[in-house]
Each structure stands twice: as structure tokens, then as C-alpha cells.
Amino acid sequence: MTDVIVVGGGASGIIASIIAARQGAKVLVLERLSRIGKKLLVTGNGRCNLSNTQINLSCYHTTSNSDFSYPLQKINYEMIRDFFEELGVPVLIEENKVYPFSEQASSVLEVLRMEMNRLKIDIQTEMKVVDVFLKKGLWYLSTENGITYHAPKVVFATGGMANASFGCDQTGYHILKKLGHTIAPMFPTLVHVLSPSIYCKMMKGTKIKCDAAAYVEDNLIRKEYGEVLFTEDGLSGPPIFQLSRIAAKANLEKKRGCIVLDLMPNLSYDEVISTIYSRIARHPMRTVEELFIGWIHKRIVVPIIKYSKIESMHLPAEDLEHHHIEQLAKTIKEFIFETEGTRGYKYAQATAGGILLSEIDLKSMASKKAKGIYITGEVLDLDGDCGGYNLQWAWSTGYLAGLHAAQENEEAL
């Protein structure tokens, strides 16, 4: 008889199955797609950002008041690094981000599959679980194609809503809600931010390194630095992804949000004014538009001038009044883009919200609502920043769930 069924063949489900099998449990993995680990293949732009050497709890977000530190501290980065090195995957570290030395996500999935094969873990693909019920101490799982499986312990590693092409949908949430769990409001995160600003379309395809700050109701929430990409309908790029949770949450709560770009973070407001005056002194006959060429990305110059409400781009620079120069400097230091939430789950890397952590024993990942049920990874109400944080959460929670699901007394650690 199967001892542990793992529902979901993503990162947390795979490691849960391996750890449970290493404890001697007979394990079955049910995956709704044609193969396991598909989402893992695209993480880190195909390089697989396995983890981060600095797992700072401030890089995680949840609506729950629960202390979520235990999984991340008990099954920490060092343990996960050792786990993969034992499987034959040494790590490569870039600015605290951890990648496989091969820089191929496919190699990570291959060694995991080899270990699953070695442990004789039964993998059943194209098996979407649609219902679960308890009978005489066993959990019965009904699949969409009419097959029913049963085991005393079940690990739900069904993932979030992000990117449905990798098997993510609401099924896991519906089943866990039926078992008594509460779902915190969900929204996409690590995703492109939408803005109605006409300047986004004007600068479409342009990238610029700058400071990006997220505000909600005029309150600064978070600031990031990096390469911002302007698109037809908003803003993208690494710093925007980090701020997207704030924009999405503000939209969900019907609060006014905006992202403010500082296009010259290395200069103060007064230094920008001084630089403009210096350029005018050198080239008084250049037009306002020409004044910025060579200093600021050409495709951003016209939007800056228009946003600053300068009457004409062809005005000689020497004719600029002081208040014009102040307006230009203010725009360069505070180019404001109102936000209207984000693109949907199809484009998101992660899901915010989910099963409340207060309903989980975070030392074992066991459900407090249904004995014998364990819940891991993105389906839980916790999401991390870019940089390997979400995969570390998947590894940590999956490891604990697999370890404890295979134990009769749940005293493995």
C-alpha cells in the first residue's frame, strides 16, 4: 500500500517525495501535466535560481501573523546546497543568488528525477486530483479521469495561480478549503505593473537603470534600484517585479498607487539643476531637446520635456526660465507613474495570498484542520522576492512535509 501521496510534481512536491522515500515510505506522486517539474525549468530564466545565500525573512511576505521562520531556518540554504551537491549539482553563486554550476535548470530536474527513480517513487502524470475524502483512516483522492488513489498521508504541493501553462490553477485551493482551510485574498506578484501613463507607450522598449519607489496613498512603501523597462501598458524589469506586490495589493484594496522613478539617483535635485545650467552655458543655442542628448537616454528626453510642461521642445535652451529648469529637474528626480495593478497570473512568477499559515503546524507542515494532510510551497500564504527566495520556501516546506509525512509519530526532527 502507498504510504504517502504527493499531489503536485513541482519543486516542493518533488523534494517532499524524495525525503519521504528516503525515510522508507512508499511514495506516489500525482502530477496533472504530462511530466513533473515543468515550472522548475523556467526559473531563473532557465538557469534555475535554486536559493539565496542570505535568506532574510524581510524578503518574504504574508498576511498571516504566524512566525514563518522555522521551515527556512531548520531546512536552510546550507542544507539545500548540500542536498543538491550530494545529487551531483555543485552551486554557482552570483551576488548571493545560487544557481547550479551548469547554469541549466534542466540539469537540476534531471538529477531530481534520477533520485526519484533510484528510490522507486511512483510518478503518475496527467492525473489531476479533483476531490479528497477520509474513510477509515485513509485519504482517498479522486482524479479527473475517474481513478481513485488512497494513502494515510497526503502532501498537497499544488502550487499557486501563477502561469497556468505549468499546471497551476485553483483546484488545490478548492480542495483545501473543503477540508476546512481559510484562503487569504490572492493576487499575482513578481510581475509587470500596469500604468495608464501615456509616457509608457512613448518609451516602449526603452531600458534605463534608476531608482524605483512604490507609493500607496502618498506613503513610500519600498524602493528598489535596477534596470526598468518601459512597455506599452506599464513598467517591467527586476526592480518593478520587486515592487509589483505593492501595486497589486493597492489595486485589490482600491487604494491609489504609483511608482516614482528617480532617473538620476547619483545626483541630488540641486545637482541636477546645476548640471542643466552648466549644459546651457556650454550650448546656449541648442534646443531643449538637444540639451539632454548624451546625458539622458534619447527616447526618454521628449517624455521628460512633455511631463515638465515645457511649451516647446524647440525652445532655445538659453530661453529657459528658472521655473522651467526646476520642473525638468523635478521630473528627472520624480517621474511619477500612476499604477492600475499588474498583469494577470499568466505573466506572474508567483502568487501572493493562499492558505493561512496559522492553520499549519510549521514544524511539520501538517494541516491543523485535517490529520494526515500536509501542505507546502506556493499554495500557502507566503511569497518571496526575486532571487531564489520562493524556491527556498518550496524546498524547505517540501523537505519538512516529506520527512514528517513518512513518520508515524511526527517527531522526526
Task: Itemize the secondary structure elements and their pairings.
Elements: E1 4-7, H1 11-22, E2 27-30, E3 51-52, E4 60-61, H2 69-74, H3 77-86, E5 91-94, E6 97-100, H4 105-118, E7 122-124, E8 129-135, E9 138-143, E10 148-151, E11 153-156, H5 171-178, E12 183-189, E13 193-194, H6 198-202, E14 207-216, E15 219-231, E16 234-236, H7 238-252, E17 257-262, H8 269-282, H9 288-292, H10 298-307, H11 322-333, E18 335-339, E19 350-355, E20 360-361, E21 366-367, E22 373-375, E23 383-384, H12 389-405
Parallel strand pairs: 1-2, 1-11, 2-7, 11-22
Antiparallel strand pairs: 3-6, 4-23, 5-6, 8-9, 9-10, 12-19, 13-16, 14-15, 14-17, 15-16, 17-18, 20-21
Helix pairs in contact: 1-4, 1-12, 8-11
